[in-house]
Amino acid sequence: MSAWWQSAVIYQVYPRSFQDSNGDGIGDLQGIQSRLDHLKALGVDAIWISPIFPSPMADFGYDVADYCGIDSRFGTLADFDSLLKAAHDRGLKLLLDLVPNHTSSEHPWFKQSRASRDNPKRDWYLWRDPRPDGGPPNNWISDFGGPAWEYDEATGQYYYHAFLKEQPDLNWRNPEVRAAMMDVLRFWFERGIDGFRIDVLWHMIKHRDFPDNPVNPDWQEGWPEYMTVHQQYSTDQDEVHDIAAEMRRIADEYGARVLIGEIYLPVPKLVTYYGTPESPGVHLPFNFQLIGARWDARSLARKIARYEAALPQGGWPNWVLGNHDRPRIATRVGADQARVAMVLLLTLRGTPTLYYGDEIGMEDVPIPAELVQDPRELNEPGIGMGRDPVRTPMAWDASANAGFSTGSPWLPLHADWAARNMAAQQGDPRSMWRFTQRLLALRHQHPALALGDYHGIEADGDLLAYERRLGQDRLLIVLNLGVTPQSFAIPEWAEGLSVLAAARGGSDPAILGPNEGYILG
């Protein structure tokens, strides 16, 4: 028996950029609902929506001012309920993006916390006295640049913020904080959602003594400032697993729910977030290896094998090619190789997450300096950390603003939107959209792709090959990650198999052309 999320393909919706229904240039919940039939036609099984809670938008929703409401830019709770019902009516699951590490500085909790040192909510956040010289309590650096401590003149202490100063970190060692946030999970589970993606899970507990982080001797000019230190004491503390376990217990109380943890850590540390048989953690600690990997067949084969070997008993794998924080796959490996990457994502063992727009081959969009919105780019410009290029509006058709909005989009569209849009690609049997749809259909048709075992196959050069098998259902996947033809010795057991899909339309898997990939079954 398998849980729904094990065979599912999850589709990430960045709500500001998906579909605008009211002409203000910002996507919203009614817009998402209007596009559910398109997602169903594509063949995905669940949607994860980036934060939609009330927010001043200092970090575009990742600064939450109310965990149990909907930001008016996106709609209302009634709009959300309508979207949830519409998704469920179509057999689609719906996940929300929980941001438990920090709130907005405009959250009522923080306003009370900073009101005075003796306020009952003072200890809900991380306050520390200055050093003797008046400076910050330690050398911790914000992930968005600059010190991670902000001085509060009124109360004479610093508060900690792992990200923007408008995003103060909660004190998860405080039982009242923990109880309040667990009630947030219950609120949304009671409303009927199918799970959460948990933002920066590994950040949630800090060392109780707040020692200096070790200096990184390898840091170089041009790297982000937070990398000047190793985050040894500000992240990934042992006690975080108790929090994950409590979240899991709550999720399990509601039946078939899933928790996905955002965790950027090496694989040996990442897999500890599955928890133990006695105290399970999140169902899926996000595996981001493909996002940062060198696109080399031998290197990827080793990464896949090591990840599979590291999984604990009962731990279900997962894979991601891109998200709202990282460069798009078509930009990283090229438009042609992006088709091969899509085959890889959708045929590896585990639950894949597909980022909106990748199904039409969207690439990073250059954002002129005067149009930059992302605070990370504004804080540390020009070093490649900006996220606006991967958050641009979805292109639906060739009408004004690509069908995204009747108003002026909040970020510019990609230059070739009139040709690269969903409607155009739906009508082109050779398009990326149609190819992705074909791959998703194969996942539904072949249990081996959704739930089967993974077995790596010896290959040379730029070739990556593996078998997926479940009972009598056996498939061979062979991918050319390079730009020169590659020969492949088809295993004897696979000699009679047919070509089910080909990235570039080829027919002979014994000779793979550049950027070609095959599924045989």
Structure description:
With 521 residues, the protein is of the alpha/beta class. The chain is built from 16 helices and 18 strands. It has an eight-stranded parallel sheet. A five-stranded antiparallel sheet has the order 12-13-14-18-16. The protein has a three-stranded antiparallel sheet with strand order 4-6-5, with no helix packed on it. A hairpin with a 4-residue loop joins strand 5 (149-152) and strand 6 (157-160). The longest helix is centred in the middle third of the chain and has 17 residues, at 175-191. The protein starts with a helix and ends with a strand. The relative contact order is 0.10. The model has no long low-confidence stretch (mean pLDDT 98).
Could you give a quick summary of the protein structure above?
The protein is of the alpha/beta class and 521 residues long. It has helices at 4-7, 29-34, 36-42, 77-89, 108-113, 175-191, 240-253, 267-270, 289-292, 297-310, 329-333, 335-347, 375-379, 422-426, 432-445, 447-451, and strands spanning 10-13, 46-49, 93-98, 127-128, 149-152, 157-160, 195-198, 258-261, 284-285, 318-320, 351-355, 453-457, 463-470, 473-480, 486-487, 499-502, 511-512, 517-520.
